[in-house]
Amino acid sequence: MNVRQALRNGFIIGTISIFIILLGLTVLVGGIVRGWFDLSSNALGAWVLLGLLALLGGVNARRNTHAASWKEAAVAGLAAGVAQGAMVGIFVGIVATLIDSGTEVRQWLVQLTPEAIDLLRFGAAPVAAALIVFAIFTLAGLLGALPSYASAHYQWGAAFRSWFWGMRDQGLDLPPVAAFREYKYAPYIVYGLGLVLLLIAPQLLGRYWNYTLGTVGIYVILGLGLNIVVGLAGLLDLGYVAFFAIGAYTVAMLTAPAPHNIGMSFWLVLPIGVVLASITGVLLGIPVLRMRGDYLAIVTLGFGEIIRILSKSDVLTSFTGGPRGIRAVAGPSLFGMDLSSSQHFMYFIILGIILVAYLTYRLQNSRVGRAWMAMREDEDVAEAMGIYTLKYKLLAFAIGAAFAGFGGVLFASRNKFTGPEDFTLLVSINVLCLVIIGGMGSIPGVVIGALVLKGLPEMLRELDDYRILVFGALLVMMMILRPEGLLPSKRRRMELHEEEPTEVVAAGGAA
Amino acid sequence: MEAEASRPKQSFNVGRWIRPLIGVVVLAFILWRFWNVLFVQQVYGPDTWMRFAISGIILGGVYAVIALGYTLVYGILFMINFAHGDVMMLGAFAGFFTLEALRGTGLLNQSIFWSILSVIIAFLVGMVAATVIAVVLERVAYRPLRGAPRLVPLISAIGASLFLENAAQLVFGAQRQTYSNPTIIERNVGWTFHIGEGDVLLTYTGVLTFVLSVLLMIGLALLVQRTKMGKAMRAVAEDKQTAALMGIDVDQVISTTFAISGALAGAAGVMWGLHMGIIYHFVGFLPGLKAFTAAVLGGIGNIPGAMMGGLTLGIFEALGPAVLGMPFQLKDVLAFSILVLVLIFRPTGLLGEVLSEKKA
């Protein structure tokens, strides 16, 4: 019986709990729960969150100590509970004492408002509050360990899994579903329905949703571009936003009245922006693409920052408008009709996505695509096989940059504005996240990634502050647990799971 | 397509002409601007040049200390610890809280002894906090990925960096905090020299920062060259498998390396706070990036190289805009351009990539 292991689990959970209180998540979850159930206080939600964590502490302790009997499970849970309870209890006690003595704690730790601590105190004096918290965490640790042992002992998990997959198979075997799956044109019907839905959707949605989903769509285009660079060719580009900015500034400079009043038509500028971004991609690529992967990441990051700083600086104010940016960027018009509302743009963006996705699909399964993937897997071997890697790297950079330029043109022209704050490092990071989380080298993965990473935060507005934090944690977790992404391409999955030959054979057999 | 693929080198060798071309253009530009600024316009007097040089050397010392952390980790794991700048930021915050607490209790300026002691305590707390964070970071985000393809740990490091930055923003708030220095080393106070037509100020914090960074560099050099741990680190850097066969606990050594790099970052963070005065959640990003540039400039994986690279970059950054007659807004652009140029012309850095060369 390894009590030290259990104590360690308790300390980890205790640290996480304190961290969560410091982040203000208790107040946030409390507020959400209060909204749902019309409660008078935030305390319930906060304690549900902390209680679940404390239960988890008990579960982990039981699992990691391999407790083999009811008694051992109870000891493990109790040990973890005491450890986490002591940590959180002392923390709450100290903060409560400080607040009661009139110290303005939130001047350093902004989330520790008196209200946030009141949620955890039950109106008690500091020492009593610490003891109450300690008791709750200890009890929860114990409560977590026992059912966890029962579940392991009686194999509840396996029973649930077999029931769940059994239900799924039964559902798929129902006569109409099975008949449809057999039907020759079934995929076309699904695609057709999807297309019709896409064409109707902008009409049904209001301005706000058209705008928001338009942004998601532009990120899909960017993601598909970066997918070629990172996902197919395996070149980590952290300055992708630079090409986006070049597209946006091109359309802004050539159509807006402000700096030079050139006033070209949108349709003329669109290809110019795309080509310009692509040329910049090649020009940047020639010197830097000889470097190894991780250097490349930093150099491209530097390049992205250079473009942003330049667009903001006084040197180029006469072209870029400096920090104020460029206003009144022209939208497209066709036969005298103005097509620059968010709704019209939604159609352009959908068309753009379809075009870009089709191009990617064709490229991926061509000679070029195979060369990229060979390079990604092993550059030296690819070179030995007669692939001139620099050429294919440049091609990937140029095409990726062209897609980004396309996205930039659409973005600036839809917003009717462009400025340096649209092109921070965060855009590159966002796009990288959606490619990686969706699944590198996979087109549906990018779409899902964009919907999840750009669309979900729009729906959960109150979580917006925590978005990037979650992205960061997700990136680390994805790399550890599922480096191939949510919807991986088959090939990528095989590359990353070489050590599991049976699964590869199974996947290959199914395909 | 077919023909190009079979005889690529003759038809499309960009490398042969592009490097000399870029080199000539850059050199010509630098010489022209240099001539212009120094002899034609004569914008700055000797006192101004001196001021630039002093700030450059101090900045360079801080960069060098941060760069050592990058180099140590790279030397052993061949991985860019993208979150290193954020470890520095957290060290700076730990030092900040220590000084605030000491100020709150009134000890900070009670006597000279207490002032010195508080600065020492702030450094120790900052270094310990950063060490703990660096070790936890390695344990959580990097260790499970050992042996994975190269991009995988780098992406994980980017994720960790985002996480730390935003956690700091949420916990400490987005506002900028001002370091409370003890009165004996108040910022912008120091010795004054009369040079040319103006006075040049050499601040106490600047001297402290520089001396301390030199001491840290010497300490690290001794640690790596003279101690048993240093020997183990060098062995692991050269060949992990063989080192393990010789009875070295590789995981332990890597953990220690992260601990040392974290301690250096923490010290750099407190120095940054004491000298620059203002810290916020994003304060580690640019110094981190530039320290990486410095590490590459000196030859990544090479400890003397990181020191030299840091000082060189600091001086470049302070003098560069003046020498080239560029607006000072663009000094970051200059630093990144140096990175790109170094990687084009001498990717192994000024002193060469010692550790990885031995490996080859």
Task: Write a structural description.
The complex is a heterodimer of chains A (511) and B (360). Chain A is mainly α. Chain A has 2 domains: 3-163, no CATH class; 205-510, no CATH class. In chain A, 76% of the residues lie in helices and 2% in strands. Chain A contains 23 helices and 4 strands. In chain A, the strands form 2 sheets. In chain A, strands 1-4 form a two-stranded antiparallel sheet. In chain A, strands 2-3 form a two-stranded antiparallel sheet. The two termini of chain A are 47 Å apart. Chain B has helices at 2-6, 8-11, 14-41, 46-77, 84-104, 112-142, 151-172, 204-226, 228-238, 240-245, 250-276, 285-298, 303-324, 331-345, 354-359; strands spanning 177-178, 190-195, 198-203, 278-279. In chain B, the strands form 2 sheets. In chain B, strands 1-4 form a two-stranded antiparallel sheet. In chain B, strands 2-3 form a two-stranded antiparallel ribbon. Chain B is globular. Helices cover 74% and strands 4% of the residues of chain B. Chain B has 360 residues and is mostly helical. Chain B has 15 helices and 4 strands. Chains A and B meet through helix 1, helix 12, helix 13, helix 19 and helix 21 of A and helix 1, helix 3, helix 5, helix 7 and helix 12 of B.
| Low-confidence segments of chain B | 1-10, 354-360
In terms of DSSP E residues, the strand content of chain A is under 5%
CATH A-level architecture of chain B: Orthogonal Bundle
The span between the termini of chain A is: 47 Å
Order of helices and strands of chain B: HHHHHHHEEEHHHHEHHHH
Principal-axis shape of chain B equals: globular
Quickly name the level 1 CATH class of chain B.
Mainly Alpha
In which order are the strands of the major sheet of chain B placed?
A: 1-4
State the major sheet of chain A.
Answer: 2 strands, antiparallel
The most extensive interface, with participating residues per chain, is: A-B, 59 and 61 residues
* Distinct helical segment count of chain B: 15
Question: How many β-strands of chain B, per DSSP?
Answer: 4
The secondary structure category of chain A is mainly alpha
Q: C-alpha Rg of chain A, in Å?
A: 27 Å
- Overall tally of domains of chain B: 1
Instruction: Give the terminus-to-terminus CA distance of chain B.
Output: 35 Å
